[in-house]
Structures are given as C-alpha cells and as structure tokens.
C-alpha cells in the first residue's frame, strides 16, 4: 500500500527594492501559499525579506526536511546571474551590493538553496539540478519575466501556476508544462518558462491527489520542486 508524501513548501515574495521595486511579488507569494495550503502543503511564508531573514528562513526550512518529503521552494523577486551562478535578491540588496565582491555575502545562491533542500547579469543562468529535483524558471535563461502591472494582481507566470497547481489528479510534469504553455501563449511568445528536471522516479507524482488511484507514492529521496 503506497502512502502520501508529506508536502512542505517555502514561499518567498520580495518586491520592496529601493531601486527597482516590483508590483506583484508579495501577492504572488501570499496567493500561492494559500493555494498550496488548500492541497495539503505545510507552508513557510516570507515577504519582503532582508538577507538575514531570507537566509534564516531557508536554513530553518532545510533543517525540517525529512526523507520522502515532497518539497517546493518558490521565489518571486529579482534574480540575476553572475559567474554562472544564480542569485536571489533580498530587499536590502540594493544598499549592500555596491561591488562584485559583495554579491555572495548579500544575496542568496540558488544552487546552494537547492542543495540545502536536497540534503535535509539580468535573467538567470541554466542550472544543474541535484537528483530528485524539478526546477522551473518563469522565463528562459538570460531573459526577463513579466511582473504584471496595472489591474493584474499576479505576475504572468504565477497567474497560471495558481490555476494549474490545484487541479486534482494532475501529474507534476503536466502541471508545469501546462503553466509554460499558457504563459508562452498569453505573452505571444515573449516569455517562455524554462524547466529542468532530474526526477528519476518510475511512479507518478501528484500534488493534489483526491482518490486512491492517484496517490503519490513514496520517492527514494526528497523530491524538490523549485519555481
């Protein structure tokens, strides 16, 4: 008899940057956290995080991860690529990153965040993912994602993620491929989400199983979903 994964998520939305503020990142994080809770995720939520707060959230979250967990990490905010590494920016980054030497001490390395979850320029660079990980960026490497604006409550990518992630009995690959297709369609080809997966599990993985025939089976290691 298979059993359900414990589902845990860390959701962070940063928008109150001093030089390049965003419009919808906190809405995106709050709305996704609500959606994930409705399908059984235990959610840790952070909004407008300084570097210290963001690092502490990630460390504390990673410490609680157990084998067989299905783990989701979501970040809405500014990110950039430097020397083939991806960095996620806290809201105090504008004041602290004044030269290249400051980057790794005042931003969050996305690859290291992935590794933490596994064991317990503009745009973003292609990432090599640890085993058992699915990563989806809101846009292709080296490109920029639409934050939304005007009357929009959510960014374009999160708007479609919110619709797809709660669909019952939807395989994880279909969830994220559907998000990508809808974003590409609505943006008329200007924004194309980019996905990398190293999940090597023969069984189906569902985020919202609602009957015995679609139960997510236990994985041989932690499954990480990073978006």
Protein model, in words:
GO terms for molecular function: cysteine-type endopeptidase activity. One of its GO terms (biological process) is proteolysis. This is Caspase family p20 domain-containing protein. Residues 5-81 form the Caspase family p20 domain. This protein is α/β, with parallel strands linked by helices and 227 residues long. It has a single domain, classed as Rossmann fold. 31% of the residues lie in helices and 19% in strands. The chain has seven helices and nine strands, in the order E-H-E-H-E-E-E-H-H-E-H-E-H-H-E-E. The chain has helices at 25-38, 51-64, 93-96, 103-106, 110-119, 156-164, 172-186; strands at 7-13, 42-47, 70-76, 79-82, 85-88, 108-109, 133-137, 194-197, 223-226. The strands form two sheets. The protein has a six-stranded mixed beta sheet with strand order 2-1-3-9-7-8, sandwiched between helices. Strands 4-5-6 form a three-stranded antiparallel beta sheet. A hairpin with a 2-residue loop joins strand 4 (79-82) and strand 5. Helix 1 packs parallel to helix 6 (156-164), helix 2 packs parallel to helix 5 (110-119) and helix 6 (156-164) runs antiparallel to helix 7. The longest helix is centred in the last third of the chain and has 15 residues, at 172-186. It starts with 6 loop residues before the first strand and ends with a strand. The model is unreliable at 121-131 and 214-223 (pLDDT under 50).
């Amino acid at each position: 008899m298979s059993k359900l994964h414990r589902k845990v998520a860390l959701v962070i939305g940063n928008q109150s940057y001093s030089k390049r503020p965003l419009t919808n990142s906190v809405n995106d994080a709050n709305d996704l956290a609500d959606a994930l809770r409705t399908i059984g995720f235990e959610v840790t939520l952070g909004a407008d995080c300084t570097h210290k707060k963001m690092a502490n959230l990630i460390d504390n979250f990673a410490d609680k991860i157990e084998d067989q967990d299905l783990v989701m990490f979501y970040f809405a905010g500014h990110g950039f690529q430097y020397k083939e590494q991806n960095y996620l920016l806290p809201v105090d980054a504008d004041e602290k990153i004044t030269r290249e030497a400051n980057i790794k001490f005042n931003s969050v390395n996305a690859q290291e965040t992935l590794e933490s979850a596994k064991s317990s320029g503009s745009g973003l660079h292609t990432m090599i993912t640890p085993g058992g990980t699915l990563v989806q960026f809101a846009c292709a490497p080296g490109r920029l994602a639409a934050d939304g604006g005007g009357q929009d409550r959510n960014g374009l990518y999160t708007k479609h993620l919110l619709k797809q992630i709660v669909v019952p009995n939807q395989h994880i690959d279909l969830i994220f491929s559907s998000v990508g297709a809808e974003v590409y369609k609505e943006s008329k080809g200007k924004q194309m989400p980019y996905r990398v997966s190293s999940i090597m599990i023969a069984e189906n993985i569902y985020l919202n199983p609602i009957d015995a025939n679609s139960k997510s089976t236990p994985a041989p290691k932690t499954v990480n979903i990073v978006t």
